[in-house]
């Protein structure tokens, strides 16, 4: 009887030890699981981050804007040459002064335009070639009063056309750089026209 009691007690102790060990193991498993991060519900895509994506080129010139830029380039070149001719071939100080102003202002406008063209995919050489246009050829053979009269009349006509062109572009240009350029140069063209009209009045009275 005593032997059976000892066996029963021994068996009970073994069962309790096994049960306790299993419970401990489950507890350890729960602690370990809590330490590991949960898998992301929506894993991040493997594509390149937005901040490193290439930026699309803006302000490219197309259509009417490109045509305007080409015309403005030709006009600036011609007016610069005519301004130099006025300083060399006129005997009128007012005409010479107007010619000097013409060279400076149109040279500045031309440099602005070259920067605009380079920025917007129309690279230009640092020194632009100057064409001998019909207007320039016409003025080459004139001197003195004959030159003054033809030159000033030409300035009135040229700048009125340029103002019309620049006003239109300032209102309709699709490219922001072209639109800003037209707006910036417009007051200079308006001053040139006003001065040319005043100069024409002086020439007619002398």
Give structural notes.
The protein is an all-alpha fold and 206 residues long. The protein has a domain at 63-205: Ferritin (Up-down Bundle), CATH 1.20.1260.10. 75% of the residues lie in helices and 0% in strands. It contains 6 helices and no strands. It has helices spanning 2-35, 63-89, 93-119, 134-140, 144-172, 176-205. Helix 2 runs parallel beside helix 4, helix 3 runs antiparallel to helix 6 (176-205) and helix 5 (144-172) runs antiparallel to helix 6 (176-205). The chain is elongated, with a radius of gyration of 42 Å. The termini are far apart.
Question: Topology, pairings included?
Answer:
Elements lengths: L1 H34 L27 H27 L3 H27 L14 H7 L3 H29 L3 H30 L1
Helix pairs in contact: 2-3, 2-4, 2-5, 3-6, 5-6
Number of helices: 6
Any idea what the CATH superfamily of the domain at 63-205 is called? Ferritin, core subunit, four-helix bundle
Helix content: over 70%
Structural class by helix and strand composition: mainly alpha
The CATH architecture category of the domain at 63-205 equals Up-down Bundle
Relevant terms:
mainly alpha, elongated, 206 residues, 6 helices, disordered N terminus, Ferritin
Describe the structure concisely:
The protein is mostly helical.
């Amino acid at each position: 009887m005593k032997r059976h009691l000892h066996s029963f007690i021994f068996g009970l102790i073994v069962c309790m030890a096994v049960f306790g060990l299993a419970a401990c193991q489950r507890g350890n498993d729960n602690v370990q699981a809590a330490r590991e991060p949960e898998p992301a519900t929506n894993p991040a895509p493997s594509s390149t981050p937005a901040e490193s994506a290439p930026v699309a080129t803006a302000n490219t010139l197309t259509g009417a804007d490109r045509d305007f830029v080409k015309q403005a380039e030709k006009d600036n070149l011609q007016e610069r040459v005519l301004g130099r001719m006025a300083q060399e071939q006129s005997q009128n100080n007012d005409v010479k002064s107007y010619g000097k102003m013409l060279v400076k202002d149109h040279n500045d406008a031309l440099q602005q335009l070259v920067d605009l063209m380079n920025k917007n995919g129309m690279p230009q050489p640092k020194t632009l070639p100057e064409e001998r246009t019909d207007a320039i050829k016409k003025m080459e053979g004139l001197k003195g009063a004959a030159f003054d009269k033809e030159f000033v009349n030409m300035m009135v006509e040229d700048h009125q056309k340029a103002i019309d062109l620049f006003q239109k572009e300032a209102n309709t240009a699709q490219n922001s750089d072209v639109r800003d350029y037209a707006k910036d140069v417009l007051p200079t063209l308006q001053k040139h026209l006003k001065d040319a009209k005043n100069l024409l009045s002086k020439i007619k009275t002398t």
